[in-house]
Design a protein that fits this description.
CATH architecture of the largest domain: 3-Layer(aba) Sandwich
Structural class: alpha/beta
Order of helices and strands: HEHEHEHEHEHEHHEHEHHEHHHEH
Cofactor: pyridoxal 5'-phosphate
Pfam family, one: PALP
Strand content: 15-25%
Distance between the termini: 52 Å
Family: Belongs to the serine/threonine dehydratase family.
Number of helices: 15
CATH class of the largest domain: Alpha Beta
CATH topology of the largest domain: Rossmann fold
Catalytic activity: L-serine = pyruvate + NH4(+)
Number of domains: 2
Protein name: L-serine ammonia-lyase
Radius of gyration: 18 Å
């Protein structure tokens, strides 16, 4: 029975008066911040972990939400978990990983290096590697977001890091024969690996991530995500870190939900006029009335961090 095997929940689905008013379209929020482990990552990663529930150990390289989802899934399934985290990982996240019973190994300045260490450990120990975004099981798990919708939207908005969420959303749309529903794929200027790949017509590796949205920090977009831009109406879109910070603050006031910068990127387009601006020039967005916003969640935020970001950009 598959139903008892899922470790994620059917996330709340809720109309937002404030976002609808700000953007001029009807906005429905899929509140993935309510998932166990705090983000949409629980869907894809737990789905993959369930498929490998007889594994001796799960290994994941993520200083963030993928690691938290893997730690949660392992604990639920009774499988030990080792998480490799880059040196940039906050103590906040490391403590959360340890609270879920995971072993945490620090090493590698950035994710790429840290991932190499994880892969080596997998080889030595016969563990199962749980990638943060690039695997068909992960996309399949993430596609359940769309499976839960009651009716067809005119547009889905999501944030893009490595592209695992976007891949799942497109898979979900295709499964429901909603192939014509466009996806607005939002990144910040300093983490725009999808945007640059689409401009260049090939995967591009960014020299560095220069955004506060560190959990969008995949320097190269996933191969599958890039391929999908050729077959599905995907509209890459960029927002500034400053708008992201304004959005975290505004969204907290409006919806009483605190989101991390990576999640706020996709919400920013509804506050800052970007969606309206895109709709005026993009025929695919010409007749959008009902929008599904995936509030992807994430644990990398506190009120203190928000206060510091506001000071950084001189936001009152």
């Amino acid at each position: 029975n598959m139903a008892s095997e899922t470790l994620y929940i059917a996330a709340p689905y809720k109309h937002s008066r404030a976002l609808s008013k700000a953007s001029g379209v009807e906005v429905w929020m899929k509140l993935e911040n309510c998932q166990p482990s705090g983000s949409f990552k629980t869907r894809g990663i737990s789905h993959m972990c369930v498929k490998h529930k007889n594994s001796p150990r799960f290994v994941c390289s993520s200083g963030g939400n993928a690691g938290l989802a893997a730690a949660y899934s392992g604990k639920q399934l009774g499988v030990p978990v080792t998480i490799f985290v880059p040196l940039t990982t906050t103590q906040l996240v490391i403590d959360k990983l340890k609270d879920e019973g995971a072993d945490v190994v620090r090493g590698g300045a950035a994710w790429d290096e840290c991932n190499q260490n994880a892969l080596k450990f997998v080889e030595e120990t016969g563990s199962v590697y749980i990638p943060p975004f690039e695997h068909p099981y992960i996309w399949e798990g993430n596609s359940s977001i769309i499976a839960e919708l009651d009716s067809k939207p005119d547009l889905v908005i999501c944030s893009v890091g490595g592209g695992g969420l976007m891949c799942g959303i497109v898979e979900g749309l295709v499964k429901r024969k909603w192939d014509d529903v466009p996806v607005l794929a939002v990144e910040t200027h300093g983490s725009n690996s999808l945007y640059q790949a689409v401009q260049a017509g090939k995967q591009v590796t960014l020299p560095a991530i220069t955004s506060i949205a560190i959990t969008l920090g995949a320097k190269t977009i996933g191969k599958q995500a890039f391929e999908l831009t050729k077959s599905h109406p995907i509209i890459p879109c960029l927002v500034s870190d400053e708008d992201v910070v304004k959005t975290i603050s505004q969204f907290l006031d409006d919806e009483k939900i605190l989101v991390e910068p990576a999640c706020a990127a996709s919400i920013a387009v509804l506050y800052n006029g970007k969606l309206k601006e895109l709709a005026s020039s993009n025929p695919k967005l010409g007749n959008v009335k009902k929008v599904v916003l995936v509030v992807c969640g994430g644990s990398g935020v506190t009120i203190e961090m928000l206060k510091n970001w506001k000071q950084m950009f001189n936001i009152k």
